[in-house]
Amino acid sequence: MYKPLSQSNIPKAKLIKRGKVRDIYEVDGYLLILATDRISAFDVVLPNPIPYKGYVLNQISVFWFKFLKDIVENHFITDDVNLFPEVFKESYDQVVYRSMLVKKTRPLPVECIVRGYISGSAWKDYKRSGSVCGVKLPEGLRESDKLNEPIFTPSTKAETGHDENITFEKVVDLIGKELAEKVRDLSLEIYAKAEKYARERGIIIADTKFEFGLDENDNLILIDEVLTPDSSRFWPLSEYEPGKSQPSFDKQYVRDYLESLNWDKQPPAPELPEEVVKKTSEKYLEAYRLLTGEDLLKKIKV
After folding, report:
1. 214 in Cβ contact with 108 (< 8 Å)
2. Which segments cross the bilayer (predicted)?
3. Which residue, among 252, 254, 247, has the nearest Cα to 273 in the 3D structure?
4. Mean predicted confidence (pLDDT) in 47-75
5. DSSP 124
6. From the candidate CATH numbers 3.90.110.10, 3.30.470.20, 2.30.170.40, 3.40.50.300, the one assigned to the domain spanning 107-251
């Protein structure tokens, strides 16, 4: 019987981080990343879990890690619970479908953001300065316009609060010129392949965030989550109309609802109405179906 999971509890495994959405455990030199059904908006975790959200986030990442492996190695080992260390098998109901075993890496202190369309904070920056993260853009762009070519707009990784947009030169200062150029070029290459694939299936990937780390041999690999509705803006291609904000398959629907309230965006967050929770869950499941061609609930026999 499925129950939304707001917080995992695996007694014999070492919990090393509880993020806004994911819980990370360490055992036998590996990490287990577990996607809960928590949802955050404006850097505040909301009180309602979103049914199946953790399943969608985990399964979409698994899909993309396999799809993109010809471009760059990644930290994914397996999502087969039968191959997990024993301590996780004892918590089968918590880990199944919503977790993956991954290699430990040294994460780079940079979030690698690629934008193919102008939206969100980039749109605000553009209106103010005509550029985004030091990248000068053409005059006269409208909100949600497709850019002539995707741009790399990195940010710092903030443990708490908001990430800070930075220039490419700042990335060079942080990790060195050779590595900075490598993560920039890889990010743009990954985005191009994923964007083409998704567009053919009715989804525009307007922008997305990648993270990279160095493995024990100092190889650069793709880590974290990849091209999920939490790390990307997914728009339905059939409804795309530049000049305004777009309907989406991500949590923008929740943000829009919260913006309609008299809430100061500080904890505690307000409860979401049942209808908003249901609609959000449906959006996540629909994104999975369009990208993979599978009905997730049939796949997991819920």
Report:
1. yes
2. none
3. 254
4. 97
5. H
6. 3.30.470.20
